[in-house]
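Progress report, Aim 2. The chain analyzed during this reporting quarter is listed below.
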Amino acid sequence: MFWDEKAECMNKEDKEKIQLERLQKTVQLAYENVEFYKKRFDEIGLKPEDIKTLKDIEKIPFTTKSDLRQAYPLGLLAVPRDEIVEIHASSGTTGKPTVTAYTQNDLEIWGECIARGLKMAGAEKDYIIQNAYGYGLFTGGFGIHHGGNKMGAITIPISAGNTQRQLDTMIDFQSEILTCTPSYAMYLGESRQKAGIPLEDINLKIGIHGAEMWTNEMRKRIEESLGIKTHNIYGLTEVMGPGVAQECDEQNGMHIQDDHFYPEIINPDTGETLDYGESGELVLTSLTKTGMPILRFRTKDLTSLNADKCECGRTTIRMTRITGRSDDMLKIKGVMVFPSQIEKALLKIEGASPNYLIHVTRPDILDEVEVKVEASKELFSDEIRAMEKLEKQIQASIRSETGLRVDVTLCEPESLPRSEGKAIRVIDERNL
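Predicted structure tokens for the chain:
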């Protein structure tokens, strides 16, 4: 049940003692070795010795993605370059990529965090992990790989894509665990059904999915189509990669490995620290990473924290499912909307696929929104009247969920683009 019971079930007092010791050590490391942090501290007259309690973390300025881009490629290293053994980076689709660098000890910690997640999802040492996250600069593939190695499980580094080979591998090797993005897991499930492969022919038990937002409705579709129990995993390149947090079998929030990462929730507009249970932006501080430590990184991910002991026995802080990103929120006709709300609304409707695309335009002075949704194969071949009825049902569901009137267009099955990495759900062509 546990990979490291002592760490995962530590009492509050012992946990906070370790967190403070590690925070103070990390702050000292960053101040003495990273010019960016020294300058930030000196500008406000803050010294490492001023961090006397965990509450004092609020004195430290935030770090943003923009800061990391300005330090590209290796401006935030806290150790000599000859101690760095691995580098990863974000896609850089909206500017310079953000880079993170690891010492050998950092990789050991990364593997430890992933191993904890594998175990809390029910993995055993003799399980085969079919790792369909992308390998390369993206942290997903290598993160799971390091954790699988740490656990001693067999890891198949199949990477993303080549769907037929994925299905063949599931059958030939009888993989027990599938790791990939939720949108690709959904596509694999659809592909299994389309190929007529019985669930009895595959041996999957566990799905570990992250790197993009997904709803409970999508979870149900994946579990039904692949015959598995799914677990949400969370991480980000800037802090480490996947493994910062993950769901256990209770599926009631993701356990943050809080002896390695210190979490806070802030008001995204004011920067004010919020209490447990309040929704806001997640801020993370690495407590043990030495290659490129990061202090109070604003993730932009919107969630809340729960400090109650989980039914599984773990005492680590849990974060709720990500509801959106403060920089991904769409303001349409004065209404604040997250793509996850659209997904939740359409998945309530029988006959609608979880594959959708939100297209926002402003041809004149008013916003126009079209939501393209794939219909099921049976419905698409049905009469026009049935399709029009489904479009109206989806419109009503979206309006109920968001308060927004949208145009809905049903599309032919498999006509919308599929992604082997993070799914693209929004095309906003307004010139804002």
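The CA atoms of residues 17 and 299 lie 25 Å apart. The chain has a mean pLDDT of 92. These observations will guide the mutagenesis work planned for the next reporting period.
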